[in-house]
Amino acid sequence: MATIADVARHAGVAPSTVSYALSGKRPISESARRRIDDSIRTLGYRPHAGARALASSKSNVVALMLPLRDDMHVPTLLQFATGVVTAARGHDHDVLLLTHDEGGDGISRVATGSMADALVVMDVEREDARIPVLRTLDRPCVLIGVAGDAGELTSVDLDFVAAGELAVDHLAELGHRHVGLVGQPPSVYSRRTGFADRFIEGFTAASQRHGARVAVRPCEFTYAGVATAVEALLAELPELTALVVHNEHAAPMLLETLSSMGRKVPDDISIVSMCTDDVAERMRVPLTSIAIPAAEIGSRAVDMVMNKLHGREAPGLTLLPPRLARRDSTAAPTGR
Amino acid sequence: MATIADVARHAGVAPSTVSYALSGKRPISESARRRIDDSIRTLGYRPHAGARALASSKSNVVALMLPLRDDMHVPTLLQFATGVVTAARGHDHDVLLLTHDEGGDGISRVATGSMADALVVMDVEREDARIPVLRTLDRPCVLIGVAGDAGELTSVDLDFVAAGELAVDHLAELGHRHVGLVGQPPSVYSRRTGFADRFIEGFTAASQRHGARVAVRPCEFTYAGVATAVEALLAELPELTALVVHNEHAAPMLLETLSSMGRKVPDDISIVSMCTDDVAERMRVPLTSIAIPAAEIGSRAVDMVMNKLHGREAPGLTLLPPRLARRDSTAAPTGR
DNA sequence: TGCCACTGTCGAAGCGCTTCGATACAGCCA
DNA sequence: TGGCTGTATCGAAGCGCTTCGACAGTGGCA
């Protein structure tokens, strides 16, 4: 394996010159640069990451802590990850993968051991044990999600409050006055993962503003769970004409359940779903939906953490605005 | 940040002694060990990963190359990843995440730059451009999947041929003689990803053995795609009484499609599905299924790559035997 | 008592890179 | 011609660790 000294010898310059040619931190003559480039290519030289990290105290790695829980929607999760990896590579960084269950220990191992220059932490909860750890660290980090006590820590997320409002606004505009919310599984709420609560918050606020009557039910993603939730909502709101679904797994089951109950979508019941566009489009009835821009959130998180790494300021909390895509699952309620 | 020299000073020993205490490569007296441990704890010492990598030429990192394609079943993918990360941590290694689209370049960047000691590469295709690169590398690697020209490279995968056979064996045993296969999307076959072809191979071989008549159709995971596939299969095999589904996304759609055609499962049509157990159990009719033991494959891959890293031999190709879980979607065909 | 083997520890070299300060040289102006 | 500025390059130190060889001390055996 060639070293920088080999390259220097081959090109007839000092090792430091090669280093400067590589980093661009000092001017290099045209001729030297050419010889160095040639030598690098013919020797197949690649700098040793460890040596570089040692000398420069920069690892060019960002750590990504991913939850691997089965009550999360996995494809969305992977979109976050893709956004993070792609953006990181764009900043010439690699990504070290940590899982949620390593917790604060994993974070400090990677940070204190100088394996990573920066951290992106997903799926933060309202009261998250990792946040104190993050705060003691000297390394920049960005949270995906909104923690209650994030304080000065930088966070990015979809504006779930606005998403909840947007769903109701759309339905109210069409004339709906009785709207149910099919939520996430109970475990998600009891973990106090911020996004689920925030969605309900926006949903409720907008309903009040529009004078609509609403009901909310968590929902497991099994047929039985969906049926239970729908029955409970109908019992509470007999005149229900619209549903908002914040549960990617449950959406197809819901459609099937309603159809087996003889309720047509959108004629009898309108549906707005929180889900990615491709899921919405593949449904039996293509769903009007609000997507979580997961890849964008991931790449934004990396951009911000890079800003901090370079000493630039980053905002405390960034909430991306939701966008609603109209499809075939929403219509004005049929007069009765 | 404390260094090994700080620890040594604090404990009243030489830095090398601390190093040996940490690595266990030379005997250390009980008293020295205790003082060193104390010093490490009070100083919050953590070895610098880069320095360690430089001195020992070991990074304690394995690179994982993950495909992020949307025609793959993402939850399964993440199970592989989970298996890999968990096993790697068990071997005191971290995981560097690479995406498929970095290709051979990504592999050689990470390997030549000494960022990773070993590689796990997923989703290998019959003729994979990364394989020649892998072969020139001095680092151990393990493939997940079966490549045509893997040669002496180590590979792990589910035995998809056996899985195809197992599905047919089960149906034949029940008395089915006309069986259709609902396959992966066409793009998967045209990429020549081994697993899909191998499944068909086993399916076909077992059918011949049992004297069953069969038909095979690729299938997009849209309702239209599923309907098309089912119609084509029925046209080719009017007496069809059973379906094998090798397509996790399509399974629920298939169930719905059959029910809307008035065909009952399992009374009119039996179904065997390749999918994870939790997906199978959540279906309207719980599916008899063969699961891909993704997490186990992932952790096996890591175990093998670690063996190679320590100079132990690893087998060329490991195929895990499939297991079929009987649920409610298969029964003997009703006599006509 | 002398020798040997073993255990526990130390010091120093070296891993491959970055970076600081020094230096050589060219070109310019006075 | 002397002195100055600026550009391009070099040499050496040092980043924090591992590892090799050396060596002091201890105990056992002849």
Automatic annotation (TrEMBL), chains A, B:
PROSITE patterns: HTH_LACI_2. Keywords: DNA-binding, Transcription, Transcription regulation. CDD domains: HTH_LacI, PBP1_LacI_sugar_binding-like. It holds the Pfam family Peripla_BP_3. Residues 2-56 form the HTH lacI-type domain. The keyword DNA repair does not apply. GO terms for molecular function: DNA-binding transcription factor activity; transcription cis-regulatory region binding. SMART domains: HTH_LACI. This is LacI family transcriptional regulator. It comes from Haloactinopolyspora alba. The lineage of its organism: Bacteria, Bacillati, Actinomycetota, Actinomycetes, Jiangellales.
